[in-house]
Amino acid sequence: MRREITGFSNPTVKALRALREKKHRKAARQFLAEGLRLLTDALECGHVPQMLVMSSARDPHPLLDTLEAAVLAAGGEVIETTPDILSKITGKDNPQAVAGVFAEFDTAIERLDRHAAPIWLVAQALRDPGNLGTMLRTGDAVGAGGLILIDDCADPFSVEAVRASMGAVFTQAIAQASWDEFLPWLRSGPGQLVAASLRDAVPYRGAPYTAPCFLLVGNESRGLPGEYEAACDLRVTMPMRGRADSLNAAVAAAVLAYEVLASLEA
Amino acid sequence: MRREITGFSNPTVKALRALREKKHRKAARQFLAEGLRLLTDALECGHVPQMLVMSSARDPHPLLDTLEAAVLAAGGEVIETTPDILSKITGKDNPQAVAGVFAEFDTAIERLDRHAAPIWLVAQALRDPGNLGTMLRTGDAVGAGGLILIDDCADPFSVEAVRASMGAVFTQAIAQASWDEFLPWLRSGPGQLVAASLRDAVPYRGAPYTAPCFLLVGNESRGLPGEYEAACDLRVTMPMRGRADSLNAAVAAAVLAYEVLASLEA
């Protein structure tokens, strides 16, 4: 179905704007993603938006036509609106010409196939959606299978996380679990749990990584709880040559993930 | 001098709040940093705040006493205010108990001593203050000398950049220059310019890095201009196993910097 919306007070506009808030996303079981490239990535990974919102000021593009056709073929809606309204919806001053509304994915950990990839990223109580999105993006780059979110993490379907993921939210599997759900799942099959740690750790370079390798990083300010570190098969440490005693969580995950990638491929 | 401020409309509160905006920072030649740990790092690196703003709800702490004494000894001001006003000043819902106002540093590139460190980070047109702060933090971790900002970058003295740097804004040298200023400066002495690149590049692992090594990363969306890449002594590429063709800029800098660190120390 196609519609044109020109009023800020239109109920669809209100519902779309509300997707910027977690409680509304959870109620609607939907999330928002912006940009032609990102939506094209999504489509190529099999994710068709339920609704496509296009700016009346867009330039024509064959990929946009493809998107539109896919949405209509799947029974979704295509909405044309003003750049101002699109800006209100996405919360961005210079909005992309197109945004899509997607059904949230099932993030049950039982759905993960650990044999699908040699590397998995695991974040514990990660609070910053930008860090979370960046970890998804890094996971895509190193050929990881996905990101497992332990305990109370930022929402991977927030606009900020989706944006920072640069499309990897559609290519990486995402699971959410408590530590008490995660650990039994992990131990029910093969898998090496590796923590970036300062305690009782070996140098991260040349450490004995084995696939499937699960790389665990902790909360931005508190790091990993001691008992979580203790449950790991391997604790590795990165050089810290300056005054600081830790790296940004997404940076630590990336440095470690690239080391594991090199090690497993050697 | 000591003062107590209880009113939101106090001119000092207005001036401090204004430091969240770049034009006011540049006019005042000052910037704001928050948190006891960060301010203590600053002090230990020889940076005494011109003004210390403390919450009336703070817990006593010997490091806070040390800070207060240092500010008063240097002829600065110590201000006590309410948590609400401190929150307004820093723009944070749960403000730290203390914030400091610092004189902006001189960021002329001529002041850098390239022999002071084996690694230097260089960012071109980096637009995200969080990425910039994260690069400073990574620089501290790998023992870099500092961060050189080329062309139109985010402001390293913004609240977001200072916060993301976790204190490294005080430990890392910061320089700002146009490309046309940077390149002659670089070529006036020893220094290998290395670009993270997709074109005409060798694998980043095992590449022939030499100190002082200048690691150049480009703008978040456009990457490096071709002529900048061409001017580099070495172009290296990182594996991209997924759909994406680039990493987050701060992540790329970190993966590369840790590789260079390992290479130079081997």
TrEMBL record, chains A, B:
GO biological process: methylation
Stored SUPFAM superfamilies: alpha/beta knot (SSF75217), L30e-like (SSF55315)
Residue ranges of domain RNA 2-O ribose methyltransferase substrate binding in the record: 32-108
Keywords, comma-separated and alphabetical: Methyltransferase, Transferase
Gene Ontology molecular function: any one: methyltransferase activity
Entry annotated with the keyword Methyltransferase: yes
A Pfam family of this chain: SpoU_methylase
UniProt entry tagged with the keyword Transferase: yes
Family affiliation: Belongs to the class IV-like SAM-binding methyltransferase superfamily. RNA methyltransferase TrmH family.
Protein name, as recorded: TrmH family RNA methyltransferase
